[in-house]
Write a structure and sequence with these properties.
single chain; mainly alpha; 12 helices; 43% helix; globular; binds fe (ii) ion; iron; oxidoreductase; metal-binding
Length: 304
């Protein structure tokens, strides 16, 4: 079977040294065919395409890049890290997400649960033995519940969109970097140098990322003592960190373990991005499989 991956995407995603040959093969010869266009008929992640979403997306990045400061993120982590809002299972959370539409996404106009299952099922087809990766795909966006009233109804800019580190200089490879000039941290000498408050190879675990569904779901998984491997947690926390996994920025902050985990994130990202197409999933049919994975890696009820 032919796989329609543009060479640039292939370079980003799977031509990693250290990736097992059978894994490379799956992406090169497997059943996952990368679609050429998104739900609106445009190429993926085209922030200049003339769609009705363009201005909404741009405005979201303007607000995000001004509103995310080192202090803001610290406060949000403290506040939401308490996990004192709701108790529910992973699957209950998947169903809760059905009402959420992500304004930052130029490619997607369907309920989130479709996206979660499309991503998970596409990965499952190509990596049948990596059950942790299937579950990671299913839960990677659950943090978007932050948009709902019971979670504080945060504005879209504080929940979705590409993420970036705070506490060091903003990299130009971030989408709409021009808006960072209005961020209060931009002129703060403690935060506006290459390393800022960090040091070479300090590890991404120690880096404060802009607040949103990624970091929140990472905290939820950790606080509830998931047994997912570190690569799964890495995918959850950094899946919107496009400056890192697509542009290769901020690598000076990574340690050895981050470099290993990044290989899996790049695999995951192809599915996260390109499974946003018109593939319908029979939810009831696949539910028992995912319920079994949830049972393996999470407690029955989680604190959120
Ligand atoms: Fe996401
Ligand atoms: Fe996603």
């Amino acid at each position: 079977m032919t796989i329609l991956v543009r060479q640039a995407e292939l370079d980003m995603g799977v031509q990693e040294k250290g990736m097992a040959p059978e894994e490379l093969k799956k992406v090169e010869n497997g059943g996952f065919v990368v679609p050429g266009s998104n739900a609106f008929g445009n190429t993926f992640r085209d922030y200049n395409a003339d769609t009705a979403r363009k201005e909404i997306v741009k405005d979201l990045y303007r607000q995000s890049h001004i509103g995310h400061t080192y202090d803001f993120v610290k406060k949000m982590r403290e506040k939401y890290g308490k996990m004192d809002r709701v108790e529910m299972s992973i699957w209950e959370c998947c169903e809760l997400l059905n009402d959420v539409v992500d304004d930052s996404d130029p490619d997607l106009d369907e309920p989130q649960i479709e996206h979660l299952l499309q991503t998970a099922e596409a990965i499952r087809k190509d990596y049948p033995n990596e059950d942790w990766l299937h579950l990671t795909a299913l839960i990677h966006d659950l943090g978007k519940v932050l948009l709902l009233p019971s979670f504080g109804e945060l504005p879209q800019w504080a929940v979705v969109g590409d993420t970036f580190p705070l506490g060091c200089a903003f990299d130009d490879s971030n989408v709409h970097p021009e808006f960072f000039k209005e961020n209060p941290d931009y002129d703060n000498p403690a935060y506006n140098t290459k390393y800022g408050v960090y040091s070479e190879g300090c590890g991404l675990d120690n880096v404060l990322m802009s607040w949103g569904h990624d970091d929140y779901m990472y905290l939820v998984a950790k606080e509830n003592k998931t047994t997912l491997p570190n690569a799964g947690l890495f995918i959850i926390r950094y899946h919107s960190f496009y400056a890192l996994h697509k542009a290769g920025a901020y690598t000076h902050l990574m340690n050895e373990e981050d470099r290993e985990n990044l290989k899996w994130l790049k695999v995951f990202n192809q599915y996260d991005l390109y499974s946003k197409s018109k593939v319908r999933i029979d939810v009831e049919k696949v539910k028992p499989y995912y319920e079994s994975l949830i049972k393996k890696y999470f407690p029955e009820k989680l604190k959120w």
